[in-house]
Write a structure and sequence with these properties.
Layout (H helix, E strand, L loop, with lengths): L2 H18 L5 H11 L2 H29 L6 H21 L15 H11 L2 H15 L9 H38 L1 H7 L4 H18 L2
Helix pairs in contact: 1-6, 1-7, 2-3, 2-7, 3-5, 3-6, 3-7, 4-6, 4-9, 6-7, 6-9
Keywords: Membrane, Transmembrane, Transmembrane helix
Length: 216
Amino acid sequence: MNTAASLWSAVVVSGLYHGVNPGMGWPLAVSAALMARKTGDLYKALAALAAGHLLAMAAILFPFSALMVLVEWQVQIQTGAALLVIALGFYLLINRRHPRFLARVPPSRLALWSFLAAMAHGAGLMLVPIYLGICGTLETDSGHAAAYSLMWNNATAALAVALAHTGAMVLAGGAIAVGVYYWLGLRFLQKSWFNLDLIWALSLIIVGLIALLTAH
């Protein structure tokens, strides 16, 4: 598998992982539908969570698309982003508590909750080293493309990464939410689910280390 395909696979896999992780909000979609006793509210809630997650991904990735105009600083930018991801991973290993401010966001504002949760857990930051690697696989002429053209290409890549990642997240989380709502019930969550916080923190560190090793 070539580098570009591997990086895009990482975007999708991380999205699937975020979707499975209850910390990204799919239990709230189930809860919203059960409280309203309307099936449609399940899908409305999932759409709101997707919108918030997508906005969080874009908010992190687009500034880096502008920074990538400084092509000669690409390695330094990618290295700095990787170190940030590693630092956040270690922080989450030490501090296992979920941010308290998320509990203050009312259930009626799921898009806002999803945006804040993705930011707080470093979901968008995790994509940055992967995204920078994807930008490095984009073809440019021998003297590098003009700044506007390069920024446009990188912004397009940022949007594609955000959409692919969020799509995978909604697919995985939505599938679990639908299964719990229609068939498995809330007891499944109490008896069968597991905490992914430790794995999430370690995954941030691993992604950061891989990005450091592949920065060139």
